[in-house]
Amino acid sequence: MLRKLSMAAFAVALSATSSLAATEVTWWHAMGGELGKKLEEIAQKFNESQSDYKVVPVYKGSYPETLTAAIAAFRAGQQPAIVQVFEVGTGTMMAAKGAVYPVYKLMADEGEPFDTKTFLAPVTGYYSDTKGNILSLPFNSSTPIMYYNKDVFKKAGLDPEVAPKTWKEVEEFSKKIVSSGAAKCGLTSAWITWVQTENLSALHDKPFGTLQNGFGGVKSEFTFNGPLQVKHWANLKKWQDEGLFKYGGPVGGDQAATMFYSQECAITMNSSAGRAGVINNAKNFTPGFAPLPYYDDEIKEPKNSIIGGATLWVLNGKDKATYKGVAKFFSYLSKPDVQADWHQFTGYLPITNAAYELGQKQGYYEKNPGSDIAIKQITRGTPSENSKGVRFGNFTQVRTIIDEEFQALLANKKDAKQSLDSAVQRGNALLREFEAANSN
Amino acid sequence: MDTKRTTFNNRLLPYLLLAPQLAITLVFFIWPAAQAVKSSFEREDPFGFSTVFVGLTHYRQLIEDPNYLDALWRTAVFAVSVTILSMMLGLAFAAAVNRVTRSARIYTTLLVWPYAVAPVVAGVLWWFLFNTSTGLLPFFLERVGIRWDHDLNGTHAMILIIIAAAWKQISYNFLFFLAGLQSVPQSLIEAAAIDGSGPVRRFFTISLPLLSPTTFFLFIINVNYTMFDTFPIVDATTGGGPAQATTTLVYKVYQDGYVGLNIGSSSAQSVLLMLIVMLLTFVQFRFVERRVQY
User: N or C: which end of chain A has fewer CB within 10 A?
Assistant: First the structure.
């Protein structure tokens, strides 16, 4: 009771500046810094565009923190209407059927127009159930791309306008860069799990797990210890020993960006949302942008890459008026101009085809070379079961395990096969745990 | 024994006076602890829709999990190293300051400073100093032939968190040791000096034995500190890595419970951790205290 009162007091305090009649829609998000300011601007513009609803964005910390906070709040009956959940939390949210108000259903119930086809196919594919219904609204999606240092390429006697296309070229280029002394290391990478394991598998049309990479249900098992993944990890280890590759650190690999900015490493691979950061930090050199490399002896035409980022989930237990407001806000968010603005400011993908077309019409991609590489990479070809995405329970922990095993490989404790086998085995134990917890 | 006894005329009053403290203990310690014990026997989905009693499953899984046993061993290494390092340095500084007649206050103030630093900040500070690409210390270490890499080398990572955790705790130990040293009767030291024993001998035969209550107290406090309060340091420096080389028991509770949302197993780990600390404290009081001279 006390908590409810204090929450009410808090809400009143927040709404004191606006009209009291407006229905509050609380939105928990994990966007700090510049992204957070932009997000608040979007909410504010929506609030100014009408007077019935007031979206109140609340910053809840990192992605895992936001998810945990939302779950704890739900258990205490204090949940927000909208919560931003990162892609690895998708499995957890989808399994929580009683907690989630699916977006397709919400939009239908509130009579808001909502057509799945207007969204980019790989984005909807990642967040739909097996019947093709969108369960959460795509908001910020990104995909990994390659960044390289044009000046270092020039110093090493390479053509700065030609990025390595295949892993073989990455190796050759790196050798030239290191042996010519143009840079201390050839390449580094953020997100070993997301970029060098999940996306690697998707690009080469190899399964990451059974049951369509987990889209088929909670009984899936990991299979990312196949020959391709073993070969790639073994290569990274070999390149580390030869001084061509440098480890960027676990999870997001914060060191990777630092090493790229300081021109220690000539190539890095990171989220397309890192583009703004690269442009801001590349003070003394010209950065180049390119699609992720692939093994041309494994696949002739690489598949599309898969996405990361977050979507907006609607939680159950709110009143009808609030949901009406959520639906209106979601319609607003999906507008081409709002989407294009967000996409161009942040480097996240445009979620809708219309937003992409608007950007083309505005000439944005011509003025900002490299800004459409992510879109082209994610929309190329026809997505297969292996390149649609990955969906597993307990996936946050699984990613930690993959990081740990990769570290064990680099520290000479295991070889590539052993570390991937061990990651699969430990990951499967977590999947069984998740299956047990979600099938009682 | 001659203890002071206060008698209350009102039978209710003593309970009332205790009530606030009891209420806090109940709400913030007993209740969550009881909750943890309860959920350690249950398997639950994160949102709490279904809860199934699974008995000792979580405990059995933990005992069979080599990763958990490794974490246990690592925590022991970590706790003992931090305790010994911070207590020895604390004592050395205290003994040094105790001999300084002038400007002792300035030294004391300076030595106590690190204690005011928040653990996360302390962690970040050492993380910067040891940063493999931009840090100061790896630069010097490289000159003596050590390639520092706590991102991949588990031993380096462990050394990093031991130093960061010990650094913060030195101040605390220093203060208590200094107070202890100052309460050593001057007459004893003078008598020993007249008998011809030097400062080192005096320190080891007189001051140190007389400090044993302080040492004992600090030992318990330090072990508890490393067991429970070092989470921010690990989180800010190594994040438990590389390959779990710095995942202590507390950090694993956080990883599994908070990040992984596996509340059952995480609760079981908390309960085990609680038991370990209770056992340690018991052993310390039961066996170590006997040999302590008060």
Answer: N
Low-confidence winner among A6-10, A52-56, B183-187 (lowest mean pLDDT): A6-10
- Helix, strand, coil % in chain B, rounded to nearest 5: 75, 0, 25
Task: Dump pLDDT digits (tens) for A276-332.
Answer: 888 888 889 999 999 999 999 999 999 999 988 899 999 999 999 999 999 999 999
The three-class DSSP label of residue A79 is coil
The nearest CA of chain B is from the CA of A331 a distance in Å of: 28
Q: What is the value of ipTM here, to two decimals?
A: 0.72
User: CA–CA separation, B198 vs B192, rounded Å?
Assistant: 8
Name the closest residue on chain B to residue A410, using Cα atoms: B152
Nearest CA in chain B to A393: B260
Of A67, A250, A396, the CB nearest to B239: A250
Q: Nearest residue on chain A to B151, judged by CA atoms?
A: A249
Domain coordinates in residue numbering, chain A: 2-142+307-367, 144-305+393-437
Distance from CA of B51 to the nearest CA of A (A): 8
Report pLDDT for B108. Answer: 86
Residues of B with CB under 8 A from a CB of A: 43-52, 132-134, 151-154, 239, 241-244, 255-256, 258-262, 265
Using alpha carbons, select from A144, A224, A236, A229 the residue that is nearest to residue A190.
Answer: A144
pLDDT in tens, A359-381: 999 999 998 888 889 999 998 88
Query: What's the CATH code, domain A2-142+307-367?
Result: 3.40.190.10
Place of tokens 């007993």: B30
The total of other beta-carbon atoms located within 10 Å of residue B27's CB is 10
Mind listing the pLDDT tens digit for each residue in B14-23? 889 999 999 9
* Model pLDDT, residue A130: 76
Task: List the beta strands (DSSP E) in A71-184.
Answer: 82-86, 137-142, 144-149
Which residue type is seen at A254?
D
The reply to whether domains A2-142+307-367 and A144-305+393-437 share a CATH topology is yes
- Assigned token pair, A330: 């979601």
Q: Is there a contact between B241 and A437 if contact means CB atoms under 8 Å apart?
A: no
Residues A75 and B47: beta-carbon distance below 8 Å: yes
Question: What would the pLDDT profile of A261-281 be if each residue is shown by its tens digit?
Answer: 999 999 999 998 888 888 888
Reported confidence tier of residue A1, pLDDT bands at 50, 70, 90: very low
Q: Decide if A27 contacts A43 (C-beta within 8 A).
A: yes
Q: How many CB atoms lie within 10 A of CB B83?
A: 23
Query: Domain A144-305+393-437's class?
Result: alpha beta
Whole-model pTM above 0.95?
A: no
- How many residues in total does chain A contain? 440
Write the single-letter amino acid at B159.
I
d(CA A1, CA A4): 5
Q: What gap in Å lies between CA A272 and CA A307, rounded to an integer?
A: 10
Per-residue model confidence as pLDDT tens digits over B107-141: 888 888 888 888 888 888 888 888 877 788 888 88
Determine the Cα–Cα distance for residues A203 and A387; give it in Å rounded to an integer.
7
Distance separating alpha carbons of residues A29 and A27, to the nearest angstrom: 6
Domains and their CATH numbers in chain B: 39-291 (1.10.3720.10)
Please tell me which residue of chain B has the smallest CA distance to A72. B47
Contacts across the A-B interface (CB distance below 8 Å): 87
Picking from A71, A408, A410, the nearest residue to B47 by CB comes out as A71
CB contact under 8 A, A75 and B47: yes
Query: Amino acid identity, residue A161?
Result: E
Closest CA to A241 of A404, A402, A409, A405: A409
